[in-house]
Amino acid sequence: MRILGIETSCDETGVAVYDTERGLLAHSLYSQIELHADYGGVVPELASRDHVRKIIPLLRDLLAGAGTTLDELDGVAYTAGPGLAGALMVGAVFGRTLAWALGVPAVGVHHMEGHLLAPMLEASPPAFPFIALLVSGGHTQLMRVDGIGRYHLLGESIDDAAGEAFDKVAKMLKLDYPGGPAVAKLAEGGDATRFAFPRPMLDRPGLDFSFSGLKTSVMNALRTTEDYPQKSADIAASFQAAAVDTLSRKCERALKETGVRRLVVAGGVSANKLLRTALAQMTARHKADVFYPALPFCTDNGAMIAFAGAQRLLAGEKEGMGITVRPRWPMTDLHAPGRPLAAK
Ligand code: KG4
Ligand code: ZN
Question: Which of 16, 326, 328, 342 would disulfide-bridge 306, Cβ 3.0–4.6 Å?
Answer without folding.
Answer: 16
